[in-house]
Amino acid sequence: MYVQRLEVRDFRNYTHAVLELGPRIQVFAGRNGQGKTNLVEAVRYLSVFGSHRVPTTVPLIRAGCDQAIVRATVLHEGRQLQLDAQLNRDAPNRVRVGRAPRRVAEAAGQLATVLFAPEDLALVRGGPETRRRMLDELAVAMRPRLAETISGYDRVLRQRNTLLKSARASRVGTGGLGTLDVWDEQLVDLGTAILRQRVALVGSIAGPLARLYDLIADTDAGATAELRTNTVAALAGAGDASAVRAEFADRLREARPRDLERGVTSVGPHRDDLLLAIDGLPAREYASHGEGWSLALALRLAGAEALRAVSPAGDPVLILDDVFAELDAARRGRLIGLASGYEQVLVTAAVLEDVPRFADRPTAVVHVDRGRLSGDGVIVGGGAEAVDG
Ligand SMILES: Nc1ncnc2c1ncn2[C@@H]1O[C@H](COP(=O)(O)OP(=O)(O)OP(=O)(O)O)[C@@H](O)[C@H]1O
């Protein structure tokens, strides 16, 4: 699939811009702080209805405006799909697919994207929640219905923790905690589904991760990814849902006195981590900057491979934000070679020459200068003077 047309209005530093894009390598080039990432952020927004840079959508609305619009026409196997988002400063955001209003959970994933950005170094260096979020986003992209399971688990977990805290405060005895049994049952059901999905997902990305890391870093160091959980003792038996459920329930029951004492749930997939290692050494503590960068990139690309293997939406749009400046010439060449296998690749770069031309695929260039666009496929180039026109 690929984005055929992108339109933004009052989005970040754009007043109004319209671009025709194609099944090709599409480079957005310009000096720092001009609006390159803002454009790929708009594309990504229509995929997950969130930003990879900020937790809320207000910063996406152009300063001084009350509303931003992001629209795209996506082409998938010859069929056009219209995606339309209205971001409101003081009202709920709205999403339409075609002409029909949709809930975010229904619209997410219609446009499949995989984005790699500088922030992704946190996948290697950051805390376990960053890696859990990566796994969850990928799982939802592969199976959109999982979004409900994950949000259901988070809700039950919050409610269980609230109950544990209030029980601790009022010193309610374990016997007076009948509702805790209800939450535990739901937590076990939803958590079992999440854990099993993660086991399968990590199984499917581990091989590509090792291969892609070696390729990008030009090494045979061997990068590994392994799921660590306290929900069950051994992941080998995760194929058997009822066994996982039973063991998770046992562990939760055993942990109850401790959970009551501390006011938090200590067992479950919300404590999972994805252990990344290079040559057997935990990457979080041992990897150099360059190694960490290559590993994070390999992890995203492994996710893209897993997604393209199962996704009914076909090839995800690959977005590489500010990647090439970090790599030496040989790594740049290998990355563009890998990326060029995707139907559409969106690349941002401060220095155009950092992005090697790949002979087998057409490359289009849009120049970005203070929220104004020029170059291949630009229909409306934006800029402050265009806003009232
Ligand atoms: N809501 C907003 N309203 C107006 N301007 C904004 C808004 N959000 C961001 N900007 C402006 O957008 C610019 C940054 O754009 P962007 O992050 O796309 O930069 P970039 O071209 O990718 O730069 P770099 O190469 O440094 O990553 C900044 O000048 C910032 O002030």
From TrEMBL:
DNA damage in keyword set: yes
Listed Gene3D superfamilies: P-loop containing nucleotide triphosphate hydrolases (3.40.50.300), RecF/RecN/SMC, N-terminal domain (1.20.1050.90)
GO biological process: DNA replication; DNA synthesis involved in DNA repair; double-strand break repair; SOS response
GO molecular function terms noted in the UniProt entry: ATP binding; single-stranded DNA binding
Domain (RecF/RecN/SMC N-terminal): residue spans on this chain: 2-369
Cellular component annotations (GO), alphabetically ordered: cytoplasm
Binding of ATP, residues: G30, R31, N32, G33, Q34, G35, K36, T37
Localization per Swiss-Prot or TrEMBL: Cytoplasm
Residues spanning the membrane: none
Record key words, sorted: ATP-binding, Cytoplasm, DNA damage, DNA repair, DNA replication, DNA-binding, Nucleotide-binding, SOS response
Protein purpose: The RecF protein is involved in DNA metabolism; it is required for DNA replication and normal SOS inducibility. RecF binds preferentially to single-stranded, linear DNA. It also seems to bind ATP.
Family of this protein: Belongs to the RecF family.
NCBIfam families named in the record: recf
Protein name (database record): DNA replication and repair protein RecF
Species name: Pseudoclavibacter caeni
